[in-house]
Structure formats: structure tokens, C-alpha cells
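Researcher: Re-running this chain for the archive, since the previous output was lost when a drive failed. Same request as before.
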Amino acid sequence: MNKALRSPLIYSLFVLPALILFVAFFIYPIFNAINNSFTSWNGISKHMTYIGLDNYEMAFKDQAFWKSVRNNVYFILFSCLIQVPLIVFFSLLIANVKKLKGLYKTAVFMPSIMSTAVIGILWGFIYNPDFGLMNQVLGIFGIPPVYWLSDKNWAMLSILITNAWQWTGFYIVMVLAAILAIPRELDEAAAIDGASGIQRAIRITLPLIMPIISVVVMLSVAGAMKAADIVLVMTKGGPAGSTDVMATYMIRYAITSFRHGFGNAIAVLIFAFTIIITALYQILVVRRTERIEY
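Model: Regenerated C-alpha cells:
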């Protein structure tokens, strides 16, 4: 069997099916999108008119496009600066629970397996200005109702909170698995030496789980760049485009307006921005993270 696996022909036969699928469903669509981005095409007709870089020039001159880029940046900043610290905090809390740990893990993981449409509708009721839970709580303190999804000052924050609520549990389970994999002897030795719980968390647990935290940040950034479904369900990019992200901006032109070439140009820009951000993160942060084995 080992001799057979060393044969280049046998090895190629094992690799070929996966390689074919990778090329068909990843490499080809990327190059096809790049090709279409240089055309003026409605996505239906057989004829394409090549217009060079006009689609990219049009996007860079459109203020609505840059507003959608800004909203994607809001997604990234909210994920990295608020969501990730909360993920680590709640993971540490659950890891130190003595009873019903499985119940807590299941409870926090539940939103991530729910449909985004269901979550959008659920939080739409919570944000309802007339009978929503948020305004009822504010009313207890005498604060007037807030139009969460129809006020440009609050709509984006409302979506960010909803998106974080959906995916925080998924990342908590990942971080929690890393925490529980740390040998208990390290924590017990620190406790014997007189270290408090906070000191053990900061000086032992956090350094040991930094690799998985880096993965969580990478996944959050990638998710922020392709965010679209939660926006479409809750606001459709409104009010007045204040919650538009690059993906919803692309959908509006590629599907609704039948400007398929322009939509492909936006898709290529999303792909390029994602590659640049993740590459910078890899260079500036991940490679400098100390790898600790235990």
C-alpha cells in the first residue's frame, strides 16, 4: 500500500478530483469575474462590450461606493475592537463554570445555527419603535423611543449589534475549546504560587490562546467583507444608503439594475480588499505572535 501511494500516478488520481473541483468552483469563477469586470454587459445577452477600466473608474468616483466601503470598515472595527474582546471575556467565564458548562456552550452557540433571515426578523421586532423590547427598556428610564432601523444615526449600529449577536457564540466555542485544551497543571501551579484568577487569565491563558484569537480575528474580517444577508433582511441598505456595504452595493447593480459588468468589478474589488487586509494582518500581527507549545 505504501509503495502504491508513492507512485506519482496513484497520488495524482487521489488529488485530481479535489483539484478539478477547486479549479471549477474557485479559480474559474475568479478569472471569469475579472474578465466580466472589463465589460459593459447586462448578464443576459450573448454580446459583451469591452470597456477597459471604465467600471473601476466609475466605482471610485461614486460616493455611494465609498460609503459602502466605510460601512465595511465599521464592520471590521466593531468585530475586532468590541466583539473579539467580548468573545474572550465570555469564553473565560464559561471555562471557569463548574456546573452546566455544556448548557452554556449550547446556549451561546444557538444563534449561529439560525437562519440570518430569522435573526433579522427577530431583531426587527426587538428594534420596533412602537412595541420593541429596546424602546420598552428605554421607556423605563424615561428615554423617548428611538427609530433604530430608520434613523441614519442608529441603523448601522443596530445591524452591527445583530450581526455580533449571531456570530459571537460560534467564536466563543472556538476560543473555549482552546482554553479547555490548556493543561490544568499550568493554572494550578500559578494558583499555588499565589496568582489571582485575573492574573492567571492575563499571563497564562491569553498568551496560550493567541493563535486561536488570531484565527477568530481573520474570520471576523473575512465575514465583515462579505456581509450582505443581514443588511438585506433588516434595512436593504437604507435609510438613504446609510447601511449599504460593498456586497449589497454590488447586488444592487449586478442583479437589480442588470449592470453585470459593473457588479463584477465591485466583486473583484471586494476580493482585492479582503486579500490586502488579511495579508497585512498576517504580516503585522500573526507572524509576530509567539507560538507556544505545551
